[in-house]
């Protein structure tokens, strides 16, 4: 009996030691994660976020989806409607990319905004105009129109857009004045900077894993169909 009690006490002590050790490991992991979080925050503030970019990126569901939303491979775009390189991508690369990979359902394309207001002061408002057009299912044609107008856009062009694409003027005007729409553009800019993206266009091509992107590759600039094709094929 004494021997049995001793064995039970010994097992309890070992179990307690194991439990304490697990607690210490978990506490250490939490401390490391907190340090990484602080490190990323500091890096973002000093413009070096790309140096501490995590291996797994959060996948925002906010933005304009094109193609099969459930596709395993995702291209996440950050664009500026007044950026000449973004316009070059839209005109020279996107049509073939869309036809080969997006329309087929293999790749989902998520468009987000990164208007560089210091060099393109009207770009944030152009982003709002596009979001409001998307609310009336006119995202793609209005996107092309806004790239065509570029930084030379004037107030009369808004009336032209409303007329040309048969938008509901009252709803469109209400959307343009909606502060929450402007905030979504600001949130997209902050998200891009948190990822260390400061040039446009910037693309993240990765594999969807739940609400994250893994095994991703970043393409900065207009790129080429060949570049995107290689990144996509590497994820198959």
UniProtKB/TrEMBL annotation:
- Gene3D superfamilies, alphabetized: 1.10.40.80, Glutaredoxin
Query: Per its record, what are the GO molecular function terms?
Result: oxidoreductase activity
Q: Which SUPFAM superfamilies match?
A: Thioredoxin-like
Query: InterPro entries from the xrefs?
Result: Thioredoxin-like_fold, Thioredoxin-like_sf, Thioredoxin_domain
Q: Disulfide bond: is it a keyword of this entry?
A: yes
Alphabetical keyword list? Coiled coil, Disulfide bond, Oxidoreductase, Redox-active center, Signal
Tell me which residues make up the Thioredoxin domain.
7-236
Question: Does the UniProt entry include the keyword Signal?
Answer: yes
Sections of the chain in a coiled coil: 18-45
The entry assigns this protein to a family as follows: Belongs to the thioredoxin family. DsbA subfamily.
Name this protein carries in UniProt: Thioredoxin domain-containing protein
- Say which species the protein is native to: Pseudoalteromonas ruthenica
The record lists the lineage as: Bacteria, Pseudomonadati, Pseudomonadota, Gammaproteobacteria, Alteromonadales
């Amino acid at each position: 009996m004494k021997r049995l009690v001793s064995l039970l006490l010994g097992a309890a002590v070992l179990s307690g030691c194991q439990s304490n050790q697990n607690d210490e490991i978990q506490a250490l992991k939490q401390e490391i994660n907190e340090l990484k979080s602080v490190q990323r925050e500091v890096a973002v503030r000093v413009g070096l976020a790309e140096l501490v970019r995590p291996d797994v990126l959060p996948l925002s569901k906010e933005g304009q989806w094109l193609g099969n939303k459930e596709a395993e491979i995702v291209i996440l775009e950050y664009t500026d409607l007044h950026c000449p390189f973004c316009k070059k991508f839209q005109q020279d690369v996107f049509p073939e990319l869309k036809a080969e990979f997006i329309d087929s359902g293999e790749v989902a394309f998520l468009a987000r905004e990164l208007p560089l207001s210091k060099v393109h002061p009207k770009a944030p408002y152009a982003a709002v105009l596009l979001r409001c057009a998307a609310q009336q299912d006119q995202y793609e044609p209005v996107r092309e129109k806004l790239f065509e107008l570029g930084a030379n856009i004037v107030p009369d062009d808004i009336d032209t857009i409303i007329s040309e694409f048969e938008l509901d003027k009252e709803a469109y005007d209400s959307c343009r004045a909606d502060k929450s729409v402007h905030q979504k553009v600001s949130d997209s800019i902050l998200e891009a900077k948190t990822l260390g993206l400061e040039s446009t266009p910037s693309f993240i091509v990765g594999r969807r894993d739940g609400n994250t992107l893994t095994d991703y590759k970043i393409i900065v600039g207009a790129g080429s169909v060949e570049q995107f094709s290689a990144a996509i094929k590497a994820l198959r």
